[in-house]
Amino acid sequence: MARIFILALILFGAAHANSEVEARLTSSLRSYSALPNAAVIEITSVTPVRGKVDRVIVSNFDRRTGEFSAMIGFGQTEARIRGTALVSIPVVVPVRTLQRSVEVRDEDISVELISLSQVPTDAFYDLSDVVGKEIRRSVIPGRPIRERDVTAPVVIKKNGTVDIIYETPGISLSTRGRALEEGAIGDYIRVTSGNQGRIVTGEIVSQSRVVVK
Fold first, then answer.
1. CA torsion sign, 171 to 174 to 177 to 182?
2. 128-144 tens-digit pLDDT
3. d(CA 61, CA 39)
């Protein structure tokens, strides 16, 4: 009977220690990999730990395999542990196939939990970062949308009529002109004045306005 009681205490102590280690591992993994708060982390295996632990610091984590290593310690005592974790994070995915040049709308996308091993580093986590963007190349349902898949929508077409605003300290002049290139808001394009035919470069600030400074 005494042996059973002692064994139960040992097993309870090991389980309690591992539970505490796993909680600290989850927090350290989140910080180490800069994971969003909504990430779901499940420790699937870890080196057994007995006794108290007051710190756990992840030193390596393989996003592809889920393998990690970490230093644990209590006071002046330290040890290295290893294990694996399943991590899923919420990313923006299309709900239907989106073809090139389509402008993304709210109903075109959603957020789904995807295994970290399948999430590229340039994926989007917030719907608002994708809505209004233009698809650069076709994307398919359920697969994370990447930064390289979208671009700001073109607001000025090549040869389109534009308002050219010349700005200098204390002076602002405007004239009509023609765009020699297409571009999105924030892009710099070449335009030509309708009267003089002079070619200048300016920044697109709205759907038909180009500012030259």
1. positive
2. 999 999 999 999 999 99
3. 15
Predicted structure pTM score = 0.68
Cα 49 from Cα 68, distance rounded (Å): 16
Is residue 56 exposed (0-12), middle (13-18) or buried (19+ Cβ within 10 Å)?
Answer: buried
CA distance 81 to 56: 9
φ, ψ dihedrals at 28, nearest 5°: -70, -40
Tokens of 9: 């205490």
Contacts of 126 (CB under 8 A, 6+ apart): 92
Asked if residue 67 lies in contact with residue 38, where contact means CB atoms within 8 angstroms, the answer is no
Q: Is 5 left (phi over 0), alpha (psi -120 to 50) or beta?
A: alpha
Closest CA to 61 of 90, 41, 85, 38: 85
Closest CA to 28 of 56, 9, 1, 62: 56
